[in-house]
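Run: sequence + zinc ion -> complex structure.
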Amino acid sequence: MLKTTKELLSEAQNKGYAVPQFNVYNLETLRSVVEAAEEMNSPVILAVTPGTRRFSGDAYMHALAHTAAKVSSVPIAYHLDHHTSIVDVVPSLKLGAKSIMIDASMETFENNVRIVKEAVETAHGYGASVEGELGKLIGTEEDITVEEGEDALTDPEMAKEFVERTGVDTLAVAIGTAHGLYKSKPNLDFDRLKKIREAVDVPLVLHGASGVSEEDVRKCIAYGVSKVNIATELKIPFAEALRDYFKAHPNEQDPRKYFTPAKEALKEVVLQKIRMCKSEGKAL
Ligand SMILES: [Zn+2]
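>> structure
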């Protein structure tokens, strides 16, 4: 059944688990995620970036996710991740999308407030919830690269002001995670997370969770993170399984054959991440 991210995260926040969000790109990746969520009886968020919407087609991805929500036994939300402008998501809102992220974290605080506040006003008009981000994550997400040294962790007092002034529904925080793969072990600022949790009441979101140890993600959940985003860690096993398959079967042409091990490999990671988020058995 289709749910809004807000509904899924309020429940998670009340009960002390996190809802995993997985980036999907096509039918194969989307179905693997949904199959894993069904096996674990877990709520799940399917996410697409602006690049995926361009590559796979907005209406197609929207239809896939909404069909999944319709036929599936588990609660599913469909989220438009890492958009920089509300203008880019309006076509999806018109299609019925109910969950978006407006990432203006690279802007000044005042600009971030203004951009997200405007987005909230528009999105709420369509019944959609909005995730904002305060602080910067190093690494590359789509076309945005933040270099090391440029990162700024989220300030708890500013987070409070940001949430109050924008009316944002969920908040992505920067506490030391990065987008993409880590060069060295991430050093997370749990004290900061605790202070942010005390300062604001909206659900908190952890980006850049690929490569963070299970122990650290669990600690983040215990300290108040209600959504954990996973992208890179799904891409790797999917691509590796395809490479291995073609090495063993260089002449194979049937997508139903070569996608099967890739789907299985991706599903394994999804199962593991659902366990990590403690969302197993939490489908309402
Ligand atoms: Zn992100």
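>> summary
The chain has a mean pLDDT of 93. The radius of gyration is 18 Å.
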